[in-house]
Amino acid sequence: MAGSMNKVILIGRLGQDPKLAYLPSGQAVVNARIATDESYKDQSGQRVDRTEWHNITVYGKQAEFVANYLHKGSLIMIEGSLRTRNYEKEGQKHYVTEVIAQRVQGLDSRRDNQGDAAPQQGYQNQGYQNQQQPRGGQRPAPQQAPQYQDDDLGPAFPSEAGGMDDVPF
User: Fold this and answer.
1) Number of C-alpha atoms within 13 angstroms, CB side, residue 61?
2) Which residues pair with 86 in a beta bridge?
3) Hey, which residues does 95 pair with through a beta bridge?
4) Alpha-carbon radius of gyration of the chain
5) pTM score > 0.70 for this model?
6) 130: left (phi over 0), alpha (psi -120 to 50) or beta
7) Strand pairing report for 75-89 and 92-106
8) Which of 41, 50, 78, 51 has the alpha carbon at shortest distance from 62?
């Protein structure tokens, strides 16, 4: 079927600390739930808050990123596709719809348990680096942007620069 697309983008908060597991193949996997919320006014004018819970599954290096750097309450963006699977339990067939994440990105600037800022971007967005240690381990000192003195920035306008008075603009 040409022209179809299965793409989901959600921004929400993790409902619990992610737990990392490994498939028999050795691939990392995290199953988690995120909450999204919305509010609206009903017919009587009362504000109604509604929370929707979404099952997410993350594989590979991104699963390790999620497990090591994100925690319950973290604001995250998930980009992926919907998949529905079924299973049988006690003779009844059950269906589960989940988001298979291709991209996960941390969005808030909350501090983790050690007071270090957690990386804010997912593995595919260059925020995850293999040399970083997971929560509880020693992390390299965060790199700070270079600090500039006011005189290092140069003049605010070209006309303030010496010899620029004859520039015709």
Assistant:
1) 14
2) 95
3) 86
4) 23
5) no
6) alpha
7) antiparallel
8) 78
Q: So what's the pLDDT on residue 111? A: 55
Contact between 121 and 76 (Cβ < 8 Å):
no
120, 77 Cβ separation under 8 angstroms: no
Q: How are beta strands 47-59 and 92-106 bridged, if at all?
A: parallel
The rounded Cα 47 to chain-centroid distance in angstroms is 29
Give dist(CA 70, CA 98) in Å, integer.
Answer: 19
User: Within 13 Å, how many C-alpha atoms sit on residue 144's CB side?
Assistant: 4
In angstroms, the CA 164 to CA 161 distance is 6
**pLDDT tens per residue, range 25-49:** 999 999 999 999 999 999 999 999 9
* The token pair that represents 45 in the structure block: 């004018």
